[in-house]
Amino acid sequence: MTKSEFEEVTRKTIEAGGILAKVYFDMHSEKEDDLQPLMTDLISNRLLKFPGVVYCAGEIDTPLKVDDLYATNAVVTLLVKDLWTLINIAFTFVPAGIEVLKPEKEYYLKHNDLQAIMINMAQISAQFSEYVLSKVLSKEDYEKVKKDISRREELGKKIIEDNKKE
Fold first, then answer.
1. Domain CATH number, residue 95
2. Which of 78, 158, 54 is nearest to 115 (CA)?
3. How many domains does the chain have?
4. Which domain holds residue 133?
5. Do residues 47 and 93 make contact, with C-beta atoms less than 8 angstroms apart?
6. Is the dihedral of CA 131, 135, 138, 139 positive or negative?
7. Do residues 115 and 83 both lie within one domain?
8. In terms of domains, do 23 and 98 share one?
9. Is residue 126 within 8 Å of residue 91, measured between CB atoms?
10. Strands 53-60 and 97-102
C-alpha cells in the first residue's frame, strides 16, 4: 500500500468513527532472545488480526538488561474502526500507554454506542473482579459471588439487547 493509500484509508476510517493511536508496550523476560519474537508476534499476529483493527505497524527497541531481566519496548501505530476496539485492546493487551493521534478535536458517539461501551466495560470489570475474588475467597463465598456476577451478566445482556431494539 502506498503512503497516499494509507492516508486515504486513515481519513475514511476516522470519518466513520475510527481512531488512529500510538500504543506503547513493554515486555520482560529472563532470556533476551525471547523478547523480539514475542513482541513481533504481538504486533504482527495478535494486534493486526484483532477484530476492529484496520492496520498496525510497530517499532521494537533492542532489549536491555534491567536487574535480572531483559526488557524491551514497542511503539505501535494502530488504526481501529471505533472506540470500543481501542478499549478492548487496552483490556486485552494491557499496554503501558495509549496516545490518540486522530481525531484531533472532537469524537462523537451515538447514544447506543456509548451505552454498549459502558455495559461491556462493566462486564469486563466484573470478570476481572471474579478472577481476583476466586483467588482470595473461600470456596463457599466464591460460589455466592459467582451467582451474583452471573445475574449481573444476564442483566447486562438484557440491557444491551433492549438498547439494540431502540
1. 3.30.70
2. 158
3. 2
4. 111-165
5. yes
6. positive
7. no
8. yes
9. no
10. unpaired
